[in-house]
Design brief:
The structure holds two protein chains of two kinds. Chain A has six helices and 25 strands. Chain A is mostly beta strands. Chain A has a five-stranded antiparallel β-sheet with strand order 4-5-6-7-25, with no helix packed on it. A four-stranded antiparallel β-sheet of chain A has the order 3-2-1-24, with no helix packed on it. Chain B folds into two domains: about 120 residues, Potassium Channel Kv1.1, Chain A (2-Layer Sandwich), CATH 3.30.710; about 35 residues, no CATH class. Classes of the chains: A mainly beta, B mainly alpha. The interface between A and B is medium-sized, with 31 and 35 residues. Chain A: InterPro entries: F-box-assoc_dom_typ3, F-box-assoc_interact_dom, F-box-like_dom_sf, F-box_dom, SCF_F-box_component. Chain A: It holds the Pfam family F-box-like.
């Protein structure tokens, strides 16, 4: 005869399971099913997941190319394995040749993607917030900036005060519109609203189309140019909905990519043939930028997907024997190990990723795909 | 040598008594609050009405080591040593007993051990089938066959690669 545990203890146990295992337990009984579908349980599971893992130990990859086709997958970096549950899965958006999909960012297991019809771009882009693990998504309503402004900058972030996932779209074509126009989608409100930000308009900041970006510490970061053409990071505090800037450690915007190592903001400087990786050791402290890697690489435009502790880099690059797949590059002996995962480096979008059950509750309004 | 003032007696559901250092017993919130309630009384016996002796012994063993390790590694390295001990501690506990232990720890309100035992149970069922999880927790399946099939179909991929033992 088994003892049945009270629900509050069951909840504590199940919340410590990996998302997939918790999901499976839902099939045991009605009570457990309703427990794991509650938003409180879903956030509790997420907080245990976030506590127990290195945030840059898994990446999500979206690669969408006319000839190579599209590939959606997720990889664990150390030890290197493919996440079997996020491989050849149904996506809520079209990925065939006629569309171009770009990954905006990924937070808490949610992947935010903007999808656009390639040819005559009369068909405005759509934005999806998707949890690939549980195959559920939200398609945002139409954003009026999309289609009316040719230079858009996107960001995806989490407001921890309101427990709200937000998408921001900045219309940057100031030659036409003299001002930045900003719209924000809140998953709580389910709609877009305008943001008036005078500081940004008077800041003299220039944003290129689809700049490198990363959400971290409650803030969306984009690479930007300041008034004197200095390289900056434009920061948007997702809870307060305010902007500010931080300095990059050097002045070379167009050869820089932002990403995340552990809990820290990092940037990758591609000044061929020497490549450098910088880490902002104390977040927000500009003097704490530290160069943690410097290496030579026989190609000129690699993308870095991740770093193992031993200094092996997971990269994509089209220059080394026209390679069209991901490979590990050892910075010490330049050895290359192929992974067999085909991507086109110019159409490769990636982000740190973690599995979660977010969007599983009914109240989220998410649909299944 | 500690005086008897620093000791407390914990009495299990069967009436078995355990003499424990206050430094150890104070990790159990329930003991702390009982003693505070009867402050000044010379009687330092706390009855843990619903907790069996075998669980009282396990809980005391855990916190005795916890206190000792904390003292010994004040300068650092405590968490690592504690992890090592926890691994060894959990190895000697039968998987079915983990459930009784988690109930006991919950009743005594001992957060550190509660987290350890919940995590151990979660680890144990992580790769188990739905049927095993039901049997382990004594969960009665109240779904109709159709309802269960529908729930499994919703996330079909989540049920691959599990083991039943």
């Amino acid at each position: 005869m088994s003892v049945y545990l009270p629900e509050e203890i069951m909840e504590q146990i199940l919340a410590r399971l990996p998302p997939r295992a918790a999901l499976r337990c839902g099939a045991t009984s009605k009570q457990v099913y309703s427990l794991i579908n509650r938003s409180g349980f879903i956030s509790k599971t997420l907080s245990y997941t976030l506590l127990s893992r290195n945030p840059s130990s898994q990446v999500f990859i979206l690669s969408n190319h006319r000839d190579l086709g599209s590939s959606i997958c997720s990889l664990y970096l150390d030890p290197y394995t493919v996440d079997d549950y996020i491989h050849d899965i149904p996506s809520p958006f079209p990925t065939d040749k006629a569309y171009r999909c770009k990954l905006i960012d990924s937070i808490h297991g949610l992947v935010c993607v903007v999808v656009k019809f390639v040819c005559p771009s009369l068909d405005p882009a759509e934005i999806y917030i998707w949890n690939p693990l549980i195959r559920r998504y939200i398609k945002t309503p139409k954003c009026s900036l999309i289609g009316s402004d040719p230079r858009l900058v996107f960001g995806f972030g989490f407001d921890s005060i309101r427990n709200d996932y937000k998408v921001i779209v900045i219309g940057c074509h100031r030659e036409v519109f003299s001002e930045f126009r900003i719209q924000l989608y809140s998953s709580k409100e389910g709609s877009w609203r305008d943001i008036n930000e005078q500081w940004l308009n008077s800041s003299g900041i220039y944003l290129s189309k689809f700049p490198s970006r990363r959400f971290l510490n409650g803030v969306i970061h984009w690479l930007a140019l300041g008034e004197d053409d200095e390289s900056l990071i434009l920061c948007f505090d997702v809870s307060r909905e305010t902007f500010k800037t931080m300095k990059l450690p050097y002045n070379d915007l167009y050869r820089t990519k932002l990403f995340q190592i552990g809990e820290s903001l990092a940037c990758f400087h591609r000044h061929a043939p020497v490549f450098g990786i910088w880490l902002m050791e104390d977040y927000g402290v500009e003097s704490s930028w530290t160069k943690i890697y410097s290496f030579e690489y026989p190609g000129f435009s690699p993308s870095i997907l991740g770093i193992k502790e031993d200094g092996d880099f997971l990269m994509a690059s089209h220059c080394l024997k026209r390679r069209k797949e991901l490979f590990w590059f050892n910075t010490e002996n330049c050895a290359i190990t192929e992974t067999g995962i085909r991507v086109h480096p110019f159409f490769l979008h990636l982000s740190s990723y973690t599995q979660s059950l977010i969007l599983m509750d009914k109240e989220s309004g998410a649909l299944s795909c | 040598m500690a005086s008897t003032d620093d000791k407390v007696i914990l009495k299990s559901s069967e009436g078995e008594c355990f003499e424990v250092d206050m430094a150890v017993a104070s990790h159990l919130q329930i003991v702390k609050s009982v003693l505070e309630d009867c402050e000044g009384s010379s009687d330092k016996v706390v009855s843990l009405f619903i907790v069996e002796a075998k669980y009282v012994a396990m809980i005391i063993e855990y916190y005795k080591n916890y206190v000792e390790l904390k003292e010994k590694h004040e300068e650092g390295g405590f968490e690592e040593k504690l992890k090592e001990f926890e691994k060894q501690f959990l190895e000697q506990i039968d998987k079915k007993e983990l459930k009784g232990l988690v109930m006991a720890v919950n009743y005594l309100n001992a957060p550190a051990l509660f987290d350890v035992v919940c995590t151990a149970i979660a680890k144990h069922i992580e790769n188990k089938s739905v049927e095993y999880v039901r049997e382990y927790f004594g969960i009665v399946n109240d779904f109709t066959a159709e309802e269960e099939a529908q729930i499994r179909e919703e996330h079909r991929w989540a049920y691959d690669g599990v083991n039943d033992d």
